[in-house]
Each structure stands twice: as C-alpha cells, then as structure tokens.
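Curious: explain these tokens?
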Amino acid sequence: MRLGIVSPCYNEHEVLYLSAQKLTTLFDELIAKGKIDSDSFVLFVNDGSRDNTWEIICDLHKNNRYFSGINLAHNVGHQNAIMAGMMTARTLCDAVITIDADLQDDINAIEEMIDRYNEGYDIVYGVKVSRKADPFLKRTSAQLFYRFQNSMGLKTIPNHADFRLMSSRALEELSHYDERNLYLRGIVPLLGYRTTTVNDVISGREAGASKYTISKMLNLAVDGITSFSIRPIRLIFSAGLFFLLISIFITIYILYSYFVHSVVPGWTSMMLSLWFIGSIILLAIGVGGEYIGKIYVEVKMRPRYNIEQFIHHENDKAGSVDNNK
C-alpha cells in the first residue's frame, strides 16, 4: 500500500527535524517489512507559521524523498489544516494517517494501524490509554473535555483526538462534508464503514511547547458541541420551564403577602432573583447567538483554506493547487 502521513504544523521549528528523523526511520522499517510502498510520503501542512517552519519543510523535501509540504496562505486552525492535508493526499495514496508534528502520539502504533487497514478496516482510531506524559492541567482538562462531550450527546470515540488512519474511499466520502465549522472527531464517526481502534500511549514533547492551549481546547469543545448537538438549547428551554414554575409560586406568595398586609422588605430576595434570572437570560441569548453565528459562517460558503504552495516529489517542483470548495 502507498501510505500518506499528514501532519499539521504551526510554529514547530524546534521539533520538526527531530520528528522528521523519527518518521524517516519508521518509513525505512515499514518499507523493509513490505508494509508500505517505497513511494509513501509524509505531508507537512504549514498552517501560517510565523517562524521558519516552511523553510524547514522545504529543506526536508529537498534532501529526503519521503517529505512533501503544503504552505497555507494564512493560519486557518488545526482542524482545517488537517482537512487541507487529507484532501490533498487522498488522490495520491491508498490511506492517510493524521498525526501532530510533535509526535506525542505513539508512532509505533502506525504499523498496527496499517495491519488493521490490510484486514479491511477503512478507519482506525488511535485511542489514548495513557496520558502520564501530559502536564496535570492538560491531562485533567482533556478528561473533562471528553466527559462534557458525552454529556452533550456527541457521538465521538472516547479518548481519541486526531490520530487516525482513513482509507481513500473514507476520505472521498469525507470530502462531501462541506461544513465550515470543522470538528473532525465528530464528523469521521458519521461516515460509517468498518472501524477499529489501536492503543495510543502519549509521550512528552522533545522540544518546543504545545500549541494547543486551554483556550483552544475550549474553543474546540464549543465548536464540537454546537456543531453536533442541540442539547444546550434544550437545557436552556428546560431551565426556562423550571423558572416559570418557580415564578408561579413566587406570584402566589406575593399575592398572599399583599392580602394579609405582611410587610416584607424583599430587597435581598429581589436582587438575588434579578441577578440570577438575568444571568440565565444572558446565557440563553449567548447559546442562541453561538448557533446563529455558525449559521452565518455556513451560509457564506467561503473556502476553509487557501493553499499557496504544494511541493511533492512526483512533479519534483513547487506547484499551486486549487482552493478547497
């Protein structure tokens, strides 16, 4: 089989040569075992990096037959960068594996992914079985993230990020999903086809710092939930019914106090009620606004990314490719 590994890069100059060395060793071993063809490749996707990441990718392409590269015209985010790489590679290979450039995911699981593909599986997920190498805050926030997804009704693979293998026909089907607000962890399970998992043991970064900050994880969580679930709206509606019921009892109490001439200052209860109900109203408006905002983005149908340059050893020179639809 011809394998393509897609790896998004954002300011990864500190770790890119180390990762390239590991991937070169892996490819040499897999080719020697007959697991992949000699024209398999690694496609680094430069997502608008502000350092010399693209220059390093060009240098790797020049000196190593395994490496190709895409230079996006500007930063479009992790999910769109992965999509750009997959959509470019899908016609060039039999299967694509996506993995972050820092190689914290277990590259030793790639051989097992290939074995599962040869057994007839179209999608193979890397599922994290250990996160001891992650900092406590990242490890804890990630677990909360997965639990929150499940509570909101998202059908995702537990403890799976974006380390996965997809066959060319699965990628072809994925190309028909046109939403601008990409959340691949939610979209890929919708494709169907035969799927399985392999164990993924997370390791520490050898250089540089993670670009996936807490704020980016929160944004990803919001994108995933609002793109695949209407449960937040239903929760707000249920809360509205609950407070309506409370208001009925409060009305009865007020009328009773009025008729028995009970003098109740009521300042504290009034202020608490105003602040609490006011916050619920603002929260409801915010949730509704989030969904309306996504509709606004979708109806404009702008391209998810623009590819400025594509370098690949088949044509042995830099070239331009069309924007994604």
User: Anything to note?
Assistant: The longest strand covers residues 123-130.
